[in-house]
């Protein structure tokens, strides 16, 4: 015994602790209690899944198992027992500070595993033990240090108890440090899993791509059997597998359970867990128990965790995580990270769903716009021939008969037919400007095009053109750009005084070419400047409404400029005039 205490015989130590840095510290703590505390066997246990598991043991000899057979020291690492049993034994033990004396003589404890040592003539009962509970700041039992078989065979006196309390406190600090390190490492691992999964999701464009990007990373990072993601979109939820593919068929009862549980968990700010025997925040109705037991057996799963996917106050779906049968229960850190993933993924899904809805709306608008353009072109073409026939016959009649030429009714018909012809021509221009299949591009000298367009405008003598002498070449649609120039210059002349001058300028800039058309006429009210490019918009200004027009000229110009990926805008002051700016890239595509 004296040689052992002097350190001449070093006790053997073994541990199942996974962390290679902490494991030697636990072994050293157990060895120190053996050597300086004077005990033959010291074991250190931790709480895992409501069970107390031995993770380190040290001693100078062997053990006797519950059957009475000799066992090597490492066999003690397979021993585990429920936390509730440990708490019951600790509550009934004699307290010596942090030490708890589990006294076989008092009939409150019988040590089934004993040291391989003869205590027949000693004060110590081989079935007794000393235990030191290790608790965290909240008072929860996190571990247990057990001392078996004093070397001197005596029950420790007060001096020995004081010394043992000091040694035990040091060992408890080592164990708590190991547990804290393990918790921190676990949280760090889970946080990295979540970060990587969500990073992959951030660049996706649709809920399906988002779930596909996240799912596989979570399956590997959390050690899952599989994963299902559900979107509560419409009457029938969409279910996605780990690969991000839609699950075509799934039992309606499972869908109903998932939806109900996710909404409950979102409302109560938690995650819901169920096993074959226990439900944690997992609200079930009649028949769910049998269904889930069959599901566990079919999947060979140990537990299911459901975390809601939400954004703001809305539950968007659920993330269902299936844990393999050989995996432990969900740790507090895993539950917390699953809940955090649900919130973060819910926000990402909310954004991707909004983007998808926006794209769908934009596509519907494009389809509607194309249909509208097609309808306008069809109606305009159908009207053009009868209006042309009316005008031809009317002109023929008025040429043959002087009385007809003076007939007010026929004159009014001729004037209306002319307006209808102008409207039809503009409708056809609007449809052409919106038709992507009829927009050929060529190299164009914009200066030359502007000169030609201005020359064809009535009252062109009132137009002053400023442009470079060597021209400006760009890629564009010639008929469309001619229409833009014609409409802008015509409008400027129409809304100016009869002798008013209109200025047209063409300038080259660093990245594009700018066309400006300036008049000093009626001007446009500020509240109407955002509306003038809409189809059929007419100003509420009485002076402007007295001038003839269809409200299509600027809308056509805006469409053509957009097709060139350019910009059109206006600066105007009521009663002072307006300047229209058109910026065109050198290459339309």
What does it look like?
The chain is α+β, with helices and mostly antiparallel strands. It has four domains: about 1-180, 2-Layer Sandwich (Beta-Lactamase); about 185-355, GAF domain (Beta-Lactamase); about 360-435; about 440-585, 2-Layer Sandwich (Heat Shock Protein 90), CATH 3.30.565.10. It has 14 helices and 24 strands. It has helices at about 1-5, 25-35, 85-90, 160-200, 205-220, 250-265, 290-300, 330-400, 400-405, 410-435, 445-455, 480-495, 540-545, 555-565; strands at about 10-15, 40-50, 50-60, 65, 70, 80, 95, 100, 115, 130-135, 140-150, 225-230, 240, 270-275, 280, 300-310, 315-325, 440-445, 465, 475, 500-510, 510-520, 565-575, 575-585. The strands form five sheets. Strands 1, 2, 3, 6, 7, 8, 10 and 11 form an eight-stranded antiparallel sheet that branches. A hairpin with a 2-residue loop joins strand 16 (about 300-310) and strand 17 (about 315-325). Helix 2 packs antiparallel against helix 4 (about 160-200), helix 4 (about 160-200) packs antiparallel against helix 5 and helix 4 (about 160-200) packs parallel to helix 8. The longest helix has about 70 residues, at about 330-400. It is rod-shaped. Mean pLDDT is about 80; it is low at about 1-10.
Count of individual beta strands: 24
Number of domains: 4
CATH class of the largest domain: Alpha Beta
CATH homologous superfamily placement of the largest domain: GAF domain
The CATH architecture of the largest domain: 2-Layer Sandwich
Terminal CA distance reads 94 Å
Mean pLDDT: 82
Binned strand content: 15-25%
* Shape, principal axes of CA atoms: rod-shaped
Please give the count of helices: 14
User: Poorly predicted ranges (pLDDT <50, ≥5 residues)?
Assistant: 1-8
